[in-house]
Amino acid sequence: MNIKITADSTCDLSEALLRQWNISLIPMHILMGEESYLDGVTIHPADVFAHAQNGGKMPKSAAPNLVEYTDFLAPFARDYDAVIHINVGSKFSSCFQNARLAAQEFGNVYVVDSENICTGQGYLVLQAAKWAADGLPPKNISMRLQGLAKRVELSFVLNQLDYMAKSGRCSGVLAFGANILGIKPSLAVIDGELKVVRKYRGSLPICVGKYITDQLANREDIDRSMVFISSTQAKPGCMEAIKAGLRQYGNFENVYETDIGTTIGGYSGPGTIGIVFARKQ
């Protein structure tokens, strides 16, 4: 059975993985100033950082509309036996709602709520492609993905809170205080929402080392088949700290490195770094 895997651009998979597994993405709209851009096509995190550093307002994201999803899915529904589309979590965006409505125009399109964002969503996208390559039927893959979505853990450490303050996700006073005290917050997706789970203090590489230990040490419930390292303009020493922690605690079969895209990177800011893995069933 010939199954096509598609997703929202928020999944942040690398171009190499997209090509290898024949995965197609529909871009989110990024609204910056008076202009509208396509995520990962006409705008990238570096563009957002430059805009903000020059005094511009933080961008906002918008979901593709019903017509855009319908137009995106139509050729795949025609050319493949089935299409499985994995959306960014429904608590983050209206993407899932719009894609599900568009799928009603076709009899062979399955839409899955990843309940996540960034490579938390990307984990499901890549796993779906692997299951499709193994010959699993689309309904089975869809059902498996719904279960997997409950077990994926995405978290990351922020270098600073300035970009979150500029986007209105925290106060400027809080961001200033955190920067003065050297506090590096760790955020995670819990029950489909992004929440602060820990606060580290010290240089970013040291905080990242503490973070990776907290995530992986003494864990017997982790699925070791794959892990993602996701970052945006990683600071010196941070990638090394992540990889050292993976060597010490991880023992993962596959390690994928990806760049955090505009949707998350635009408000987490440069220096953000984290990992994504799944718990065992």
TrEMBL record:
UniProt-listed PROSITE patterns:
DEGV
- Gene3D superfamilies assigned: 3.30.1180.10, 3.40.50.10170
Keywords assigned by UniProt, alphabetized = Lipid-binding
- InterPro entries named in the record: DegV (IPR003797), DegV_C (IPR043168), DegV_domain_contain (IPR050270)
Q: Which Pfam family is one of those matched by this entry?
A: DegV
Q: Does the keyword ATP-binding apply?
A: no
Q: What is this protein called?
A: DegV family protein
